Give the backbone structure.
Amino acid sequence: MKKLFIMLLSVLSLTVVAQEEKTIAIQQPRGGNAMAVNIVKNMLTNAFASSDEWQPVERPSEEEINMRYLAGQSVGNLQPAQYILTTEINEVLEALYISCNVTNVETGQMVSGAVEMCEPSLQSIQNACASLTKQLLEK
């Protein structure tokens, strides 16, 4: 009976660990036009927030941190994140090239990546983001 109880506790503790969400800081995308940057960041943040596996944490951009520092304001307490999502948007001819990387903060190891090309229109950017999140979240 004692062995059964210990085994049951072990299984329960493993279940709790397996269901633990991973924290991820989603950085402001670099490059691209302002519309694309905002749409991509919002869609990726919403996708990770809707996931059972990930929990996004807010981080101010480097620009915001610098502005607060220069103004003598506190940056505040930054919640630690286990992972970071970096996104780069490049304009290539009349298209947008969007690349994303999820990196483990502690080890620096890239966990997953995704790339999409799209037209610089609202619908096309939304479709590209749907594909990017599918690629990032299924790995």
Summary: Helices lie at 2-18, 34-50, 62-70, 122-137. The domain at 23-137 is CATH 3.40.50.10070 (Rossmann fold).
